[in-house]
Write a structure and sequence with these properties.
The protein is α+β, with helices and mostly antiparallel strands. The chain is built from 19 helices and eleven strands.
Length: about 375
């Protein structure tokens, strides 16, 4: 049984019945579902996934007033009244001594249930650093797509109030302006193909492959962006999510996989230029900007045949002044690689100040721009 189906049954057959039995005045005044982290939220859980944080679990969203008055009482009631097992799976968990994750436990003593009681805005603030239904551009730039994926996937099983469902709809995808800003940054970063070829000419295959992997990462991100789908932050689910994309993925996936498998640098360069042309075709098909072509250039060190600068310039012209004038390019999850920052909202929220601050350094004298 998949985790989402298990937890829908757990929520509807056990948790809701217990809350309504012991707190009947709360009936139809809360929501329940399973969203957030976990392979079960994405629907990719399997036998391997069940070693930790898999089993009967869900979230309950109460009103602010009911949370303050009854949250602790409901939590205590569930600790006592939840069955030890549901459909053969333990409902209690404990922290594994070797790795800091929750694993199923057959003992009630020293364990905990996995029904998270919260409110909509408490949940949004703590888990995602979302404090408004209308985030600013900078708020959006500091929201990793992995966290937005967690917020918008999974299932809401019961929501007579509609608040959490409405929020999920509002964050279903990036605003147009933020989308274009992220597109622009991604195009900027795949325009370094000559480095792969240059390293190959010198026989530096390790360097060439390192440069290639960075370009492939950008290619994957650009494919997600052009499909208007959030890109997973963990490589574990990239392949499954990528090949589920409705456009480009099948054509491009085979090409980039072949590039990763070969040491024929000339073949890699030619194949990736084919990929860039597919991206350009899609860009024009979507009419993101006026129709454009790549800049034709003399072979850069005899390696690449065109520049992607026209796409970057066209996207920049489309941006509002607030985004054009930012000194920092791209969203935080496009240049932060530390997963401990991208997972925890209290960490990535710190980067809002980086977008807001301006440098007082001026490079406007003789020699200042010779770098």
């Amino acid at each position: 049984m998949k985790g989402l189906e298990l937890n829908r049954k757990f929520a509807m057959d056990v948790v809701i019945n217990l809350i309504n039995e012991y707190f009947p005045f709360l009936a139809d005044k809360y929501a329940i579902g399973l969203i957030g982290y976990g392979s079960d939220v994405l629907g990719y859980d399997d036998e391997i996934s069940r070693d930790h944080e898999w089993g009967p679990r869900c979230q309950v969203w109460l009103s602010e007033d009911h949370y303050k008055k009854y949250g602790k009482e409901i939590d205590k009631m569930l600790s006592v009244k939840l069955p030890l097992k549901f459909l053969g799976y333990y409902t209690r968990y404990k922290v594994d001594n070797d790795i800091p994750v929750l694993v199923p436990s057959e003992a009630i003593e020293g364990s905990m249930h996995h029904v998270a009681l919260t409110t909509v805005w408490r949940y949004l603030k703590i888990q995602y650093e979302i404090e408004s239904e209308k985030p600013t551009y900078i708020d959006w730039l500091c929201l990793p797509e992995q966290k937005l994926l967690e917020l918008t996937r999974g299932k809401i099983f019961y929501d007579p109030i509609g608040d959490i469902s409405l929020i999920r709809e509002k964050f279903n995808y990036l605003p147009e302006e933020v989308w274009c800003f992220k597109l622009m940054y991604t195009w900027m970063n795949i325009d370094h193909l000559e480095i792969v070829g240059l390293c190959g000419k010198r026989g530096d295959i390790l360097s060439a492959k390192l440069a290639l992997h960075k370009i492939v990462d950008c290619i994957i991100r650009l494919t997600f962006l052009l499909n208007r789908k959030y890109c997973p932050g963990t490589p574990k689910w990239i392949s499954k999510e990528f090949y589920n994309l409705p456009r480009l993925a099948t054509e491009i996936g085979e090409k980039i996989e072949s590039c990763l498998m070969t040491n024929d640098i000339e073949c890699i360069v030619n194949t990736l230029e084919e990929v860039f042309l597919l991206f350009l075709r899609e860009h024009n098909r979507l009419q993101i900007t006026s129709k454009i072509q790549f800049d034709q250039v003399k072979l850069s060190r005899g390696i690449t045949s065109f520049s992607l600068r026209t796409v970057v310039d066209a996207l920049n012209k489309k941006l509002p002044a607030e985004l054009q004038n930012l000194e920092m390019q791209g969203a935080c999850d496009q240049w932060i690689t530390n997963s401990n920052i991208l997972i925890w909202s209290e960490q990535y929220a710190k980067f809002k100040e980086i977008y807001k601050c301006s440098s007082n350094k001026r490079r406007d004298n003789i020699g200042d721009m010779i770098i």
